[in-house]
Design goal:
Elements: E1 14-17, H1 21-32, E2 37-40, H2 44-65, E3 75-78, H3 81-84, E4 90-93, H4 99-112, E5 118-121, E6 141-148, E7 152-159, H5 165-174, E8 181-185, H6 194-210, H7 216-227, H8 233-240, H9 242-255, H10 262-272
Parallel strand pairs: 1-2, 1-4, 2-3, 4-5, 5-6, 7-8
Antiparallel strand pairs: 6-7
Helix pairs in contact: 1-2, 9-10
Length: 289
């Protein structure tokens, strides 16, 4: 049967496996959203640092995300994994980016967590398909890649290739309760969505400086001016016109090596359908309404 959230989900804790920088931030946000949270870490020092962070920042997270839960969540620290996992409806792995470590962690989580618990990796670069060899129930495992909440409150949900699609659907509906904005990564992608985009931006910024085109200060100043209006990329391309965007991309492909063909193929498809952007009424968006 497809997965459904447990009836008592709001009475069960979220477990964060790892009390590092992001683990403690996640704990603060889930507590701010009204969930009880257990943080597991073998290091007592890390656990106490997580407590200090949550005590200081949970109320700030609540205000930053506009959360008004009926009750405040509580924090519990655990040095024993099996005890930490008791009754958890979701376990978020937040350990270092080492495949062998994650493989071992997920084997333990799958063995010890409740049968209906979701097992989620917060890896920023590794797909869960890379470390579920020791997992007997891969249908409940997925990536939930959080950015840096509460300021950056997006979370990308990506299947391992064996994840029950209903798990992703359930989290898409549930996570906004805690102030997160979930995005479904439609196929396995190294870097997910935003990190792939940021990697390209970051690389070009570095190239512009390395080639002597501009200074880091001027790049940052232009970025601030350009992003201030808040027009996102696909809306901006619609404004410019997809035929113009294609011409620009064709020029870059002529003067720079190894420019991928995929973006131009996508643009040509839209143009062939008469979708040129705002000037034709349709592009990536519908401008006729």
């Amino acid at each position: 049967m497809p997965y459904t959230l447990p009836d008592d989900v709001d009475e069960r804790p979220v477990v964060v496996d790892g009390a590092g920088t992001l683990g403690r931030r996640l704990a603060a946000v889930y507590i701010a959203g009204g969930s009880d949270v257990r943080v597991f870490d073998p290091s007592e020092g890390a656990r106490e640092a997580a407590r200090a962070y949550v005590d200081q920042h949970a109320d700030e997270a609540k205000q930053a995300l506009g959360l008004t839960p009926e009750r405040s969540g509580t924090l519990e620290l655990a040095g024993d994994l099996e005890a930490a996992l008791d009754r958890a409806w979701m376990v978020i792995e937040a350990v270092p980016e080492k495949v062998e470590l994650k493989r071992s962690v997920f084997g333990d989580l799958d063995r010890l967590a409740a049968p209906d618990a979701i097992l989620a990796s917060n890896s920023s670069s590794l797909p869960t398909s890379a470390f579920i060899d020791e997992v007997e129930h891969p249908q409940r495992v997925l990536n939930t890649h959080y950015q840096m909440p509460p300021e950056l409150n997006s979370v990308e949900l990506m299947s391992s290739g064996q994840t029950d699609a209903a798990v992703i659907d359930a989290l898409m509906d549930k996570l906004p309760q805690y102030g997160f904005v979930p995005f479904h990564v439609l196929r396995e992608s190294d870097g997910f969505i935003f990190n792939r985009i940021w990697a390209s931006i970051k690389r070009e910024c570095l190239m512009v400086v390395e080639e002597g085109v501009a200074s880091p200060v001027d790049v940052d100043r232009m970025w601030e001016i350009f992003t201030k209006p808040g027009v996102p990329p696909f809306r901006l391309m619609d404004r410019v016109g997809l035929d113009v965007v294609l011409d620009i991309e064709e020029h870059y492909a002529q003067v720079r090596e190894r420019i991928p063909e995929g973006p131009r193929k996508l643009l040509r498809r839209y143009i062939d359908e008469g979708r040129l952007g705002a000037k034709s009424g349709r592009g990536f968006y519908d401008h006729q309404t």
